[in-house]
Amino acid sequence: MSEQQQDASGRCAPLVVLAGPTAVGKGTVSAYIREHYPEVWLSVSMTTRHPRPGEIDGKHYHFVTQPKFDELVRQGEFLEHAVVHGRASYGTPRGPVLAAAQEGRLPLLEIDLQGARQVRERMPDAYFVFLAPPSWDELVRRLVGRGTESEAERETRLATARRELAAKSEFDHTIVNDDVQRAAQELVHLMQQHVCVKR
């Protein structure tokens, strides 16, 4: 027998979408949740970009060629997909997300703003969380501190981040990422409140 958990408005979300500006720490918060909250199912995105140092295919991303990605788009296999920073393609495979929701787990999508907007079109009953930096200066410090992008790429990401920060009002809830553990706990608590669960 299934049991659905609803929030105060009677809404029951099939999944939670986490988005926010570049370098805000979405991946770090998600990694903490993966390690400490086994009840949360984290979607693994597909991308055409090359792996960064330490990234593992199938764990951090599914790394594929652009022709393979384009074929999956034509087949309608993505819940959302987008070209990010004018360069690489990213997408969320539809099948695993829907399966996790049906199994009653707590599905979490960590995606960019473009992807979040596509998911809203396809799943308007999802719960959308915006991860915000403590300040603009802190966001710049984190981006420069990563050391994974060229100067030109950093400028592109900063311009993108300014636009992304302006989209905060589109989301159901905002979490300030001033501490990874605290932000992760707040996100999981929101999931427990708003996601449909089956028992």
TrEMBL record:
Pfam families: Guanylate_kin. ATP binds at residues 20-27. InterPro entries: GK/Ca_channel_bsu (IPR008145), Guanylate_kin-like_dom (IPR008144), Guanylate_kinase (IPR017665), Guanylate_kinase_CS (IPR020590), P-loop_NTPase (IPR027417). Coiled coil: none annotated. Its main location: cytoplasm. One of its GO terms (cellular component) is cytosol. Residues 13-192 form the Guanylate kinase-like domain. One of its GO terms (molecular function) is GMP kinase activity. Its EC number is 2.7.4.8. It is found in: Cytoplasm. Signal peptide: none annotated. Essential for recycling GMP and indirectly, cGMP. This is Guanylate kinase. The gene is gmk.
